[in-house]
Design goal:
five-stranded mixed beta sheet, Sig_transdc_His_kin_sub3_dim/P, transferase, phosphoprotein, transmembrane, two-component regulatory system
Length: 443
């Protein structure tokens, strides 16, 4: 404790001066009182030996014994006072408690060893002189070797015993402190892990919600765009060619049923009933995480021939649906037919689907080129359209756009490590191209 803290009578938490607790003050005061009484009781014998009055010797002895109250603040000083009182054969309690306190503190070991040696040597010497004086007064003195054995036994035991006890308590305290620090460290690590787990869960929720929004956009935007184009065509040809209008109406119905089927499949995942497992609403997982689990399970258990979604082989049908609306679409394939990872084929399909949807929305009637290049380690796709014919926009030009199509395509492609480019052409049309490496990863 610093000097400013020593000047305070009481500190926060019940600590007083250098004592950690109030009861420590009472304990040290009692020990100092007992030590002072012990020294005072031994004062007359020492005063008679040196020929001094008893009163001043008793006062000095009482002061020396009461130094024990400072054992927590200055343990070395307490032991030095005990060494000074050894010639007077006083301060046995001062020696025992002082050595114990010195050992349990953070005093260097070499200092503890030096003071212990001083007390052991001094105690043995004083005890030996006392034994010699007593043996000189008896008719049959003890053998010298036996007297030395007694001196060494009592002189060393009363010094070594408190040191050993203090070393044990010191080691135990250090062990408890290290365990407490380790527990605090583990608690901090668990807290950090919990925070990171929460962050990962939040990130997973955002990713799955983005993926759901992207899939919903792919399903709804393309099908509905085609339905709107066919509806406009029905409105235009119904008075002139009822049979063609009927065929277009049938196409609209087919596309609507396909869109509903895909929507039901997707929404069925989100509406999965968890009530059968006995969990409450708060215990049910987030719908986005639930979708991720079911989608991962579906992908892992799908047969080898099932890509878990659209494939490159279905691009011809996709282009055919656009042709049925009257759009002039040229579809070419380059390279040998080969299979790619399901995420790669699914992403290429979605890029072409979204690009054709944008043509229906913003360039109705424009000539469009779809090129697919199959390579050994990658697949490339290009969708490019010319400007719409005439000054008047096509029937699909009035379709609303949320601006998420290009963003979704870029996210899909870059998630697989590919490159994505989109933008207007010099002729006034629009181009979308993507190159995706054949990696067996998930978007």
């Amino acid at each position: 404790m610093n000097d400013a803290g020593a000047g305070a009578v009481e500190r926060k938490g019940g600590a007083v001066l250098w004592w950690p607790r109030r009861r420590s003050v009472a304990l040290d005061a009692c020990l100092a009182l007992v030590s002072a009484l012990e020294c005072v009781l031994m004062a007359p014998s020492f005063a008679a030996t040196i020929g001094l009055p008893v009163a001043p010797v008793a006062v000095v002895a009482a002061v020396g014994g009461s130094v024990l109250v400072l054992r927590r603040r200055w343990p070395i000083a307490v032991v030095l006072v005990a060494v000074a009182l050894l010639p007077a054969q006083m301060g046995l309690l001062l020696v025992v408690v002082g050595l114990y306190t010195l050992t349990v503190t953070d005093v260097p070991r070499r200092v503890i060893a030096l003071l212990t040696a001083m007390l052991s040597f001094g105690g043995c010497l004083v005890l030996y002189l006392a034994v010699l004086e007593e043996q000189a007064q008896v008719e049959q003195p003890l053998p010298t070797w036996f007297a030395l054995l007694i001196v060494l036994t009592f002189g060393v035991v009363h010094v070594v015993a408190p040191v050993l006890v203090g070393m044990y308590v010191r080691a135990r305290r250090r062990l408890v402190e290290s365990l407490r620090e380790r527990a605090d460290g583990l608690e901090r690590e668990l807290s950090l892990l919990a925070e990171r787990a929460e962050e990962r869960a939040e990130w997973a929720r955002r990713e799955e919600r983005t993926r759901i929004a992207r899939d919903m956009h792919d399903v709804v935007a393309h099908r509905v765009s085609l339905m709107v184009v066919h509806a406009a065509a029905i409105q235009a040809v119904a008075p002139k060619d009822p049979e063609k209008a009927a065929r277009n109406a049938a196409l609209v119905g087919d596309m609507g049923r396909q869109a509903l089927t895909e929507l039901r499949t997707m929404l069925g995942v989100l509406r999965t009933d968890d009530r059968s497992d006995g969990r409450t609403d708060d215990q049910r997982p987030d719908p986005a995480l639930r979708l991720a689990e079911i989608a991962a399970t579906a992908r892992s258990t799908a047969p080898a021939g099932d890509a878990g979604g659209p494939q490159l082989a279905e691009l011809a049908d996709l282009v055919g649906q656009s042709r049925q609306t009257g759009m002039a679409v040229e579809f070419t394939e380059e390279g040998e037919r080969r299979g790619y990872a399901p995420p790669v084929e699914r992403t290429v399909y979605r890029v072409v689907q979204e690009a054709l949807t944008n043509v229906h929305k913003h360039a109705g009637g424009a000539t469009t080129v779809v090129r697919l290049a199959r390579r050994e380690e990658e697949v490339a796709v290009l969708v490019q359209n010319d400007p719409p014919p005439g000054a008047e926009p096509g029937p699909g030009a009035s379709l609303p756009s949320g601006g998420n199509g290009l963003v979704g395509m870029r996210e899909r492609v870059t998630a697989l490590g590919g490159g994505f480019v989109s933008g207007p052409t010099d002729r006034g049309g629009f181009r979308v191209s993507a190159v995706i490496p054949d990696r067996d990863g998930e978007q």
